[in-house]
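Example 179, ligand flavin mononucleotide.
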Amino acid sequence: MAFHELINTRQSVRKYSSKPVEKDKLQRCLEAARMAPSASNSQPWHFIVVQEEPLRTEVAKATFSGAVKFNKFTMQAPVLVVMLLEKPRMLNRIAMILKKKEWKLIDIGIAAEHFCLQAAEEGLGTCMMGWYNEKELKKALNIPGDKTVGLVISLGYAEEGYTLRKKIRKPMEEIVTFY
Ligand SMILES: Cc1cc2nc3c(=O)[nH]c(=O)nc-3n(C[C@H](O)[C@H](O)[C@H](O)COP(=O)(O)O)c2cc1C
């Protein structure tokens, strides 16, 4: 796919078919994420890939527990990827403190988008999720208390007939300043 076509094809998919995701496709998505750039090349991420039951259902439930139910579609997604935020390198940590920036959050965002774009290239759908019950996720996956979950990504084939939505974006004039 040409890059601009890929960019327009990727969208958040919130309805999945039960078709399993091929191992090689999943591997290429992970490889795309692995190759993402990061501040000082610190690669502050770890990917927990959850496909096996009953763990997959348990992880899915942790993305919509409580009063908010908008991530219920995760119950259908055959793969759930939990992205952990790893501690960046010492040099990077010092630089972040000095500059008062959270580069590691930028880093995992880029890695997540690499993953999602590769998935789109493979004909797969994804949805990044920032809303989840961290405590429940950690319990389900035995994640140590000092670790942070940065994002959850659902992965799978979109349900048949799931069409490309018109993307609502701010107009160019609003988001760009030229000097
Ligand atoms: C950091 C982040 C967190 C997000 N969290 C959620 C979420 O918890 N649930 C959800 O359904 N979508 C979530 N999204 C998806 C956005 O709603 C979506 O990307 C946006 O509406 C644009 O639509 P598109 O992805 O189809 O282009 C998240 C996206 C990002 C980047």
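Summary: Residues 11-12, 14, 70-71, 127-131, 167 surround flavin mononucleotide (CB under 6 Å).
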